[in-house]
Amino acid sequence: MSDRLNTIVCEFDPRSPRANAFHIHEWIYENLHIAKENIRMIHIDGPRRRVYIKFTDEEYMNTILQNTEGQLEFRHDNGEISKMFIEIAEWERKR
C-alpha cells in the first residue's frame, strides 16, 4: 500500500489466534460502525496481522479514531478476546 492517505491500520495482538477474512469484515462493520459508502478499500495483511482500511475522506477517518481511542476488542470464534490497536497507517509503530 504505497498510498496510505486517509488510511488506518488495525493490528492484532501477535499472541492472538488468527482470524479469517469473513470475521474481520464483520468486525469492521459491527464494531467500528463504518458505513460501506465511507470505505474505499480494505486490505488484510495476514503475515503481519494487520488490517488496513482506506476511507473516502479524512474527517470520517478521524471520527473513527476518536471513537475507538486507538484500541478495540476482537472476539474470535473460540470466544477468546484480543486487543486490536488502531492508528493512522502513516504513523504506525513497529511492534
Could you write a compact summary of the structure shown?
This protein is 23% helix and 34% strand. With 95 residues, the protein is of the alpha+beta class.
Describe the protein's architecture and organization.
There is one protein chain. By secondary structure, this protein is α+β, with helices and mostly antiparallel strands. It has one domain (7-91): RRM (RNA recognition motif) domain (Alpha-Beta Plaits, 2-Layer Sandwich). Helices cover 23% and strands 34% of the residues. It has a 5-stranded antiparallel sheet, covered by helices on one side. Strand 2 (39-45) and strand 3 form a beta hairpin. The model has no long low-confidence stretch (mean pLDDT 89).
The CATH class label is Alpha Beta
Q: Structural class, from secondary structure content? A: alpha+beta
Sequence stretches where pLDDT stays below 50 over 5 or more residues: none
CATH topology: Alpha-Beta Plaits
CATH homologous superfamily assignment: RRM (RNA recognition motif) domain
Query: How many strands in all?
Result: 5
How confident is the prediction overall: mean pLDDT?
89
Distance between the termini: 19 Å
Number of domains: 1
- Helicity, in percent? 10-25%
What is the strand arrangement across the widest sheet?
2-3-1-5-4
- Roughly how many Å is the radius of gyration? 12 Å
Order of secondary-structure elements? EHEEHEE
- CATH architecture annotation: 2-Layer Sandwich
Largest sheet: 5 strands, antiparallel
